[in-house]
Automatic annotation (TrEMBL):
Gene Ontology terms: cellular component: plasma membrane
Residues that, per the record, bind ATP: 16, 28, 76, 85-87, 94-95
GO molecular function: ATP binding; kinase activity; metal ion binding
Residues at the active site: 69
Matches recorded under Pfam families: DAGK_prokar
Protein name: Diacylglycerol kinase family protein
Membrane topology annotation: Multi-pass membrane protein
Primary location recorded for the protein, binned into one broad class: membrane
Cofactor annotation remark: Mn(2+), Zn(2+), Cd(2+) and Co(2+) support activity to lesser extents.
Similarity comment: Belongs to the bacterial diacylglycerol kinase family.
Organism the protein comes from: Mangrovibacillus cuniculi
Length: 121
């Protein structure tokens, strides 16, 4: 594979990735909630003037939640592609993926609380 092919392949892969993120933003209700929360936390961080280290922690938390939400969407769509009928294993796959998002979102709330609460109290 020559340089041009690799470069083209990278550009194509990047385009696919952007398409996936855009799909999540447009079609997934929970992703829209996470984006609204991201905007709110960003405004709060700017108003509170949190430190660079605190911003980094917030960015990691946001990135983790949004990434897992995209993975959750991919798993749900793959399961739906295989079967639209109820199957206990399909349910487990969807529930576990959703659980991963729930854990990350819960930890992110705890992280946010540990950052913002000391500024207010």
């Amino acid at each position: 594979m020559g340089y041009r092919e690799r470069k083209y392949s990278f550009k194509r892969s990047f385009g696919y990735a952007i398409t996936g993120v855009w799909y999540g933003l447009k079609k997934e209700r929970h992703m829209q909630f996470h984006i609204a929360a991201t905007i709110s936390v960003t405004i709060l961080g700017l108003l509170t003037r949190i430190t660079l280290a605190e911003w980094r922690t917030i960015w990691l938390s946001i990135g983790l939640v949004i990434s897992l939400e995209l993975v959750n969407t991919a798993i749900e769509k793959c399961v739906d592609l295989v079967t639209q009928e109820y199957h206990p294993i399909a349910k487990i796959a969807k529930d576990v993926a959703a659980g991963a998002v729930l854990v990350a979102a819960t930890v992110s709330v705890l992280v946010g609380g540990s950052i913002f609460l000391p500024y207010w109290f």
